Amino acid sequence: METDVLMTKKAVMEYLKISHQTLFRLMKAHAFPYIKLERKVLFRKSDIDHFLESKLIK
Predict the structure, then answer these.
(1) Contact 45/12 with Cβ under 8 angstroms?
(2) Tens digit of pLDDT for each residue in 7-25?
(3) What is the value of pTM for the model shown?
(4) pLDDT value at position 54?
(5) CB 32 within 8 A of CB 26
């Protein structure tokens, strides 16, 4: 079974090359799911990639 990579907010901001404000706005808009454990917020890389694919203009 393949495990999915979990990313922190900082890793997602670097991966997408976006600011903290933009990430917060995307989270608030429920653009992609995230996991909240106590104060830590994690994202599955596959969810981020799926979000990017959905924004692809062909």
Answers:
(1) no
(2) 999 999 999 999 999 999 9
(3) 0.86
(4) 94
(5) yes
Residue 5 CB contacts under 8 Å (≥ 6 apart), including other chains: 44, 45, 46
Q: Which two tokens stand for residue 30?
A: 């429920």
DSSP symbols for 1-58: -PPPPEEEHHHHHHHHT--HHHHHHHHHTTSS--EEETTEEEEEHHHHHHHHHHT---
Domain boundaries, the chain: 6-54
Look up residue 35 and give its two tokens.
């996991």
The arrangement of strands across the sheet holding 40-44 comes to 6-8, 40-44, 35-37
Measure Cα distances from 31 to 12, 41, 49 in Å.
13, 15, 12
The tokens describing 27, both together, are: 């989270």
The amino acid that residue 55 corresponds to is K
